[in-house]
Amino acid sequence: MHSNFIELHNPDVMLSLEKAPAGGTAALYRFYNKAGELLYVGVTGNVLKRCSQHRLQSAWWFETWYMTLGWYRNRMEAFRAEADAIRTELPWHNDQFNPREDRTLYQQNKQ
């Protein structure tokens, strides 16, 4: 796995996300807020497109301060890592695989 730390408020860095590193076809990404709290974990083959979708569709997007990327050889490996990350790291906005019981309270307090 190859990983990167990406500051989302730097447009030059965002442009570098267009291509996967050699050997990587699926990215496991994590979005964090300014306090370092994990907001969301996901998998994509096109990081820029997925960021654009979150920007338009996810209420939590404007809390996002930075992201990390880990590239996997195939989507199945990335999906397994995503499920493990959600179960163990307890992001605030993932519903699937997430045992966190206080997510609703967090989401209500942020509105």
The pLDDT mean sits at 79
SSE-based structural type: alpha+beta
What is the terminal-to-terminal distance? Answer: 36 Å
Q: Write down the secondary-structure element order.
A: EHEEHEHH
Helical content class = 25-40%
CATH class: Alpha Beta
What would CATH call the architecture?
3-Layer(aba) Sandwich
Low confidence ranges: none
Query: Beta-strand percentage?
Result: 25-35%
Overall geometric form: globular
| CA gyration radius, whole angstroms | 14 Å
Number of helical runs? 4
Strand count, sense and barrel status of the largest sheet are: 4 strands, antiparallel
Number of strands: 4
From the 3D structure, determine the CATH topology. GIY-YIG endonuclease
CATH homologous superfamily title: GIY-YIG endonuclease
Give descriptors for this structure:
111 residues; alpha+beta; GIY-YIG endonuclease; four-stranded antiparallel sheet; globular
Structure report:
With 111 residues, the chain is an alpha+beta fold. It has one domain: 3-Layer(aba) Sandwich (GIY-YIG endonuclease), CATH 3.40.1440.10. It has helices spanning 11-15, 47-57, 75-89, 103-110; strands at residues 2-7, 26-33, 38-44, 64-72. The mean pLDDT is 79.
Q: Which SSEs are present, and which pair or pack?
A:
Elements: E1 2-7, H1 11-15, E2 26-33, E3 38-44, H2 47-57, E4 64-72, H3 75-89, H4 103-110
Antiparallel strand pairs: 1-4, 2-3, 2-4
